[in-house]
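About this split. The held-out portion is used to measure sequence recovery: a designer receives only the C-alpha cells and must propose an amino acid at every position. Recovery is the fraction of positions where the proposal matches the reference. Here is one held-out target exactly as it appears in the evaluation file.
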C-alpha cells in the first residue's frame, strides 16, 4: 500500500541578490545530502536569488533589478541543477524567481534523476497580496500535481501551507506526496499547519525552510531540525494511487487480521467477566 523512499530537506540560508554564491552553496549542500543516499532532496523557496521580492515591494531595489536576476526554466542555473541531479542520480526540488517574458513568478521546480523537469508550481497565495501592476510578483493560477519517479507529487510554497483548499486541490489532482519549499515562518503554528495538511490528505510532507526542516509521515512528525544549512534525512511512505484494485488489496490485508484480532479481544472481554 506504500512505496518507501528516503528524502532529504536542506534548511539553506541564502545571500540575497547573489545567485553565484547561492548556487555554489546549494550544490555543496546537495552533494553532502546525496552522500547519504536520498532519492529526493528538497530545499528552500527562492534558493537561487535569496527571495528578494520584499526588497522591491519596500523600495530598496527595483523591479528591473529583480527581472534581471530572475531566469526562465531553460536558464543557466536551472540547467546546471538539472545536470547535477542527473550526475548524482537524485531528484531535486527547489524554488527560484522564474522569468516568463517580462513577468516574474515565485516558482518551484522538480527535477528527476535523469535531469528532466517533471513539473513546476507557481506560488498561489501571497502573504503580501498582489496587484495587477506588480509584474515582478505574479500569482500562480493552477493547482496541479505532476508525475515523478515516485508517484504523483504536489508542491506548496510557503504561505500556501496555511490554506487547506490549496493542498486539497492538489491531492485531488492525484498528489501522493507534498513538498514545501519555504522562506519564513518557523512558528509552532506553522508546524501545526503542515501537520494538519498531511493528516487531512493522508500524504507525507517534506518541508525545507530557511533555518528549519520538517518531515511528516503517516500523520506524524518524524524528523525536525532547526538551524541554518542543516540536512535532515528521513524515510517517508508514499501511498499507492487510489483505485478499486488498491482498495480491494487493502481490504484483503485487513480481513486477514480481522478474525484473529477480534478473537483476541473477545477472550480479553470474557476474562474480565471472570
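Reference sequence for scoring:
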Amino acid at each position: 500500500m506504500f512505496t518507501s523512499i528516503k528524502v532529504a530537506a536542506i534548511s539553506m540560508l541564502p545571500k540575497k541578490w547573489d545567485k553565484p554564491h547561492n548556487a555554489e552553496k546549494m550544490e555543496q549542500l546537495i552533494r553532502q545530502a546525496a552522500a547519504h543516499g536520498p532519492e529526493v532532496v528538497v530545499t528552500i523557496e527562492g534558493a537561487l536569488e535569496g527571495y528578494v521580492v520584499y526588497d522591491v515591494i519596500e523600495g530598496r531595489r527595483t523591479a528591473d533589478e529583480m527581472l534581471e536576476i530572475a531566469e526562465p526554466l531553460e536558464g543557466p542555473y536551472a540547467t546546471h541543477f538539472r545536470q547535477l541531479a542527473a550526475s548524482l542520480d537524485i531528484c531535486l526540488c527547489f524554488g527560484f524567481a522564474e522569468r516568463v517574458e517580462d513577468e516574474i513568478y515565485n516558482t518551484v521546480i522538480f527535477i528527476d534523476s535523469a535531469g528532466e523537469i517533471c513539473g513546476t508550481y507557481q506560488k498561489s497565495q501571497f502573504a503580501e497580496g498582489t496587484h495587477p501592476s506588480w509584474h515582478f510578483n505574479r500569482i500562480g493560477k493552477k493547482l496541479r500535481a505532476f508525475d515523478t519517479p515516485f508517484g504523483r507529487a504536489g508542491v506548496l510554497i510557503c504561505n500556501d501551507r496555511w490554506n487547506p483548499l490549496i493542498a486539497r486541490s492538489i491531492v485531488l489532482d492525484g498528489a501522493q506526496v507534498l513538498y514545501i519549499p519555504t522562506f519564513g515562518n518557523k512558528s509552532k503554528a506553522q508546524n501545526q499547519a503542515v501537520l494538519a495538511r498531511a493528516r487531512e490528505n493522508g500524504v507525507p510532507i517534506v518541508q525545507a525552510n530557511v533555518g528549519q526542516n520538517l518531515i511528516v509521515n503517516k500523520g506524524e512528525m518524524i524528523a525536525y531540525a532547526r538551524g541554518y544549512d542543516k540536512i535532515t534525512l528521513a524515510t517517508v511512505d508514499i501511498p499507492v494511487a487510489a483505485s478499486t484494485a488498491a482498495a480491494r488489496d487493502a481490504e484483503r490485508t485487513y480481513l486477514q487480521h480481522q478474525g484473529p484480532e477480534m478473537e483476541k479481544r473477545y477472550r480479553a472481554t470474557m476474562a474480565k467477566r471472570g
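Annotator remark: The chain has two domains: 2-239, 243-274.
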